[in-house]
Amino acid sequence: MHNKQSYFKILIFTGCLMIFWGGCKSVVKTYQSPNVEIDSLFRGNHLITNDSANIGSLHWKELFRDSLLQALIQEGIDNNLDLKVAYSRIFQAAAYLKQSELSNYPSLDADASIEYSKKISTSGAVSHVHQYSLGVDASWEADIWGKLKSAKKAQMAAVLSSEAAAQAIKTNLVASIARNYYSLMAYDKELSVTLTTVDTWKQTVKVMKDLKTGAKVTEAAVVQSEAELYATQVSVPDLKRNIRETENALCYLLGRDPGKIARDSLSVKEFIPLFKTGVPAEILAGRPDVREAELDFRQAFELTNVARTYFYPSLNITANGGLSSNDLSRFFSTGSLVGGIIGGLTQPIFNKRANKTRLEIAKQDQLQALYNFKQKLLGAGQEVSNALYSYRSATDKIAPRTLQLSSLHKAVDYTQELVRNDFADYSEVLIAMQSLLSAQINQVTDFLQRNEAIVNLYAAMGGGWQ
């Protein structure tokens, strides 16, 4: 009868606690996305249209149509070590999430023990006592204030953040491979132009020597033309070094040993129209690094909620049951059954400022995450603005550069002919040839700038991870 009354009291107490729990108001706050102004985020909004087709939403194969470049990008995605590390971090975060999803369930432990003791009576008699025990212990923390729920939300944000981080790495990887690929083709073109110019200078030196023999120019003209030949030849080793270093950089991105890179030759390759860039909101939604920063803020927000709950009492219910007997032959009899249940509230009173410190640190972590999110937005605006204007400026230079080269080719031909007929000084030939080489190299730089601007714009709008 006494045992029944005890269990009845425990049940009543537990029921009161549950009623108290149901009447408790959650102390955690509801998450809201940071309120930031994005309409003025991009300089030169006239370059951004309201077209719904955003270049950042394209698959990288739709933008980069060079089959050799596509093969390199795919190899990088398959083998890049930074990307593999990012994927591993996703699995880690997912494992923590699975653990947090079970936090609302009770923990259960089983134990078995044999206790031996020896007793000596006052008369000197010795008795041996064995106590055999087998049971289970269960404990459960009720989520009164939303601590466990907020912790789970924080871990979910961590998983999504790690996924966004991997997407950001993939975006940068695709862009880096494309940039190095175009740089490699540009160096090839510069080397080809330089070697062609070396051959031209050799012909010029021969012509100057013939003209000196005919007393039409002086030895100074011959020496000056030779000096220009040697100056052009000096740039060849540097270009070859640049080619080799760029190949090595590409191999690093691809996760392979340094070696040759298969590539096309630089030409005016057509890309999709860039007027379809999307509106600012679409651009930001497509950037994985911006999503990562917001998810980091979300995680910090939920962890601040968790820190708040430590100021309030926690409800813990512990139960145990099993078998216990000092006679192994009667171990499984009803008389060996034991059990109990305990429910209680624990209110922190003084714990050396641990709870207050925890909350202050969590709030500062949340504030830092907010600043980081805003900084990512500013960086996104800068990158998009720079890429758009860079493409515009590179495109604007194509027409006048073409006209410049046409005029310089004519200037070289005209001055060489005039020198042969004593109507011009040899210095005019040298100046014309120097200008032609410089313009040819600049044309290569213009095409490289335009290609890099497209790559940068694609990455700035969050393209490449799809």
UniProtKB/TrEMBL annotation:
Gene3D superfamilies assigned: Outer membrane efflux proteins (OEP)
GO molecular function annotation: efflux transmembrane transporter activity
Subcellular location(s) of the protein: Cell membrane
Topology versus the membrane: Lipid-anchor
GO cellular component labels: plasma membrane
Signal peptide boundaries: none
Pfam family, one: OEP
Keywords for this protein: Lipoprotein, Membrane, Palmitate, Transmembrane, Transmembrane beta strand
InterPro entries linked to this entry: MdtP/NodT-like, OMP_efflux
Family as reported in the entry's similarity comment: Belongs to the outer membrane factor (OMF) (TC 1.B.17) family.
UniProt protein name: Efflux transporter, outer membrane factor (OMF) lipoprotein, NodT family
Source organism of this protein record: Arachidicoccus rhizosphaerae
